[in-house]
Design brief:
mainly beta, about 190 residues
Amino acid sequence: MSCDLIGGKLEGCKSAVGGLLAVYFINFDDLDVEANATFGSTHESDVITAIAAGSTTLYKFELKADANSLETNIQASRENGTSFFNSVLNIAIKKQDTKTTKNIKLMSYGRPYCIVHTRGNQFFLMGLQQGCDVTGGTMSAGSSLDSFVGYTVTLEANEVTPPNFLNASTETALTALMGGAITIETT
């Protein structure tokens, strides 16, 4: 049966760290990730080992605050015989400017892929089949001199699998995983 377990897990060392370093957005229409991805085999079949991206732009947003998170909720119903994964990405982008406002507006209209880079140097892909949707957020000018000024954005992806691991631990490895022909834009 395809839903049988494949192994257990020992208690790990206390060496993990939480938080996010950056998120990269890819316009959904620029790349069919699922069709162009190569997946691992056996127990690593949910790991993406290569994406034939061609000439594609990744839009990088650095995330330095602790207000950023990626949570995946398992949605399973024995009654309906269904299972899916709801991933929620919350990001806080500091300072307001016209380009970022425009990007958030366009992100809200579209359904980009999201590549999330964690402080533990793992990369995850959200929205493999359907992309991600902006489901909320704020543009804040703050109320006092020390208030947050910027944007909070919530993106969600509902998929049949949790966010896929990408076989990369650095931005250089991410570029190589995507065929090397990508551009990473930060401004």
